[in-house]
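Dear H.,

Thanks for agreeing to be a second pair of eyes. The structure we're designing against is below in token form, covering all 255 positions.
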């Protein structure tokens, strides 16, 4: 399980004439994501989604509050090296080594995560099968399509078989085949009891995929629940309309 408790991130921005202004990118957020659950994080641009996910993934220190991650026995994990093995994090601007083949990259990361050399190839084949990468596993990364690069990025995140996945816009700009491979992967990992948190602008995708959703705007959670419960509470028939009902007239162009 992963839990946010009063999680807060404050930044300072420079206004006109050099005046400094503090603002909350994430403002005292509380929620938890459980084993075997896909939790969607929805919100307009600038809502604080990426900052929230970076704190959950231990890539950014909060100004206030804490992130609690527990193991299979329900014990909190505090050791940073152990935490790395429990989390697979995909950012929206992940960089890859273009001169490597996909197989070489995955082999490098498998060894970094402690796989013995005689087990590395077996793990690479497992990941390749899971994400349907057989057709390009031996191609150079700088020759891949956008969708193939995204699948490679996700493969890098799951090579060590983490318990928690944190994905920031994993299907953004992808073709339908690559998107389906990634969506199928998230559903398969949920069935294996893994926890998946992911942000998306695709409301239809979130409605189809997520067990629960948190909607965030201006750093605050404005709604939380299953897609059906959120639609019922607002009297809407689709998640896009539900979001704007909670936003109370927000600009559709922001999504």
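And this is the sequence the design step returned. I haven't edited it by hand at all.
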């Amino acid at each position: 399980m992963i839990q946010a408790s009063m999680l807060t991130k404050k930044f300072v921005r420079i206004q006109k004439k050099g005046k400094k202004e503090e603002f909350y990118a994430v403002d005292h957020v509380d929620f938890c994501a459980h084993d075997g659950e896909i939790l969607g994080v929805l919100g307009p641009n600038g809502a604080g989604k990426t900052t929230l996910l970076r704190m959950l993934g231990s890539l950014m220190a909060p100004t206030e509050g804490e992130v609690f991650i527990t193991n299979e026995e329900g014990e909190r994990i505090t050791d940073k090296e152990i935490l790395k093995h429990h989390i697979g994090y995909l950012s929206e601007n992940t960089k890859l080594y273009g001169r490597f083949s996909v197989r070489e990259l995955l082999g490098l990361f498998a060894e970094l995560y402690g796989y013995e050399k005689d087990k590395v190839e077996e793990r690479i084949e497992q990941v390749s099968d899971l994400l349907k990468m057989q057709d390009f596993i031996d191609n150079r990364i700088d020759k891949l399509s956008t969708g193939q690069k995204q699948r490679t990025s996700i493969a890098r995140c799951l090579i060590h078989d983490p318990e928690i996945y944190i994905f920031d816009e994993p299907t953004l700009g992808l073709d339908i085949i690559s998107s389906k491979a990634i969506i199928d992967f998230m559903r398969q990992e949920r069935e294996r009891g893994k926890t998946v948190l992911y942000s998306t602008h695709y409301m239809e995708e979130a409605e189809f995929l997520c067990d629960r959703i948190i909607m965030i705007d201006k750093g605050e959670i404005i709604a939380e629940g299953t897609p059906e419960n959120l639609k019922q509470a607002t009297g809407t028939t689709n998640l896009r309309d539900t979001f704007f009902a909670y936003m109370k007239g927000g600009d559709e162009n922001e999504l």
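Two observations from my side: The mean pLDDT is 90. Residues 176-191 form the longest helix (16 residues).

Warmly,
E.
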